[in-house]
Structure of Golgi pH regulator:
Amino acid sequence: MAGSGGTLAVVLFFRLVLFVGAYGALPWIIGEARYVSLETGTERATELHVLPSVSHARTRSLSQSARLARLLHQSFVQSISVPSILFFVSVEESLILFVLVFLEHIYLPVSALQPHWHVSLTAVILCIVLWIPLCSSALLCFGGARGRWMTTRAVASLSLFVAWCWAFLHVPLPSTMATDTTWTGAILARTAMLGVSLIGVLSGSVAGGAIADSYEMMIRRRQRWGEQDVTNTRTSFQHIVTELQMKRAAADDVEAELEAGGARSSWSRWWSHSQKDRELALLRSEITGLSAVANAMRADLEYQEAQERRVQYARTCPGYVLLLGGYLFSAYCMARLMQCLLNLLFFGYASSSTRDLVSTCLAQAMRWIGLQVDVAAWSPRISFVMVGGLIVLRLRKILSSLSTMIQSVSTGISTQLLVLFTAQVLCIYVLAALIQLHDGTSTATHKSLLLASLPEFQRVFGRVFDVAFLVSASVTGACRWYAWQADGSLHRG
């Protein structure tokens, strides 16, 4: 009983720490969401997270308990909203699963950890499947409008949620799962199927982009294209700007001559065009065309200057180190692509999972430098950390694309939806990572009883991840190749 009480206190302490951490991270998440959604209204950047106001004389005249209650009210109660609550719950309930696995690893009583595990795992699945989609449907339909078309908006919101539930229930179960899977097991498998697919798409897009970036940088450095191209583009841009200024000055002179010749209404100019009127119309059309060309050339110049700065920085010592790190990261992405191909074509997806080659080599290198590690156990851990890094690198671009789609449907709510999407991605990644860790933490001498409730990654979801990874990386590479064809400077010798 004493051991169970101590375990409960430890778990509650970690839950409190994670909740406070989520509360502190919310303003940063909102800032990122506002950045990609281009919301620049009068609202503060922390509209979902109202910080405490500065104390004044009236506050100081209150008692200590009253001031504490006022502070808690201003800090927490006023900031409570449905998206913020879901974000807090998602962060706390998902990350506590990692903590529980760690506590089991240091031999805390599993019987005391299992109730927390089942509650948190159920909460994570409910966040992914029920709560976040329901809140997102309501935000998409209601938005910021209140009191108008409430019945219609409620029906639309309910229809979106029902459509999501129908699509979720029709997600195919992995063929390797038993046919007599329980209803809760099927829900977990479908959630994991969506999660593994999303993780594969996100990490594959980053891998394809990293390989393309390294290839482009190698060509830029070898051809030393930047200085001459930037100079030519800058000269052309300055020439266009000078010509645009001359045309504007000429248009001002012609308009001044027309005004000096006598004031005429726009109707009279419409019906009786003089030579000066036609000249002014021609100048204005030329100004419009030159302005469009100047804007396009300015964007091209800014892009080339940014590329030139990258090349110049890569020639310095810190830049060379970062460039070398980028090449190594691209090599890892290439190895990951090869691993997926080998799994699909040769290795297969047997019950004894095939280890990630790069992660296994890194774990073996840790043993060579004197660290006593279990290669079989550390290989999947290194693998899921690297996949998490891929997702973090891609998150801002994914949020930006999602923001564009959201704003085409509804305006003023994209920040809250992006916060919900971030919470859902976190829950999905944690669930997929725990499934991947199922193979690494279970050895012949020690089996994780907590992770035993999850399906095996390689045997059940390995093919899904590899296909999503390869397709996403291929599509990203094809898009970059198309962009290279439009960029003539990349092919100049």
Remarks:
- The chain has two domains: 2-211+333-491, 222-318.
- The chain is about 80% helix and 0% strand.
- Residues 2-211+333-491 form one domain.
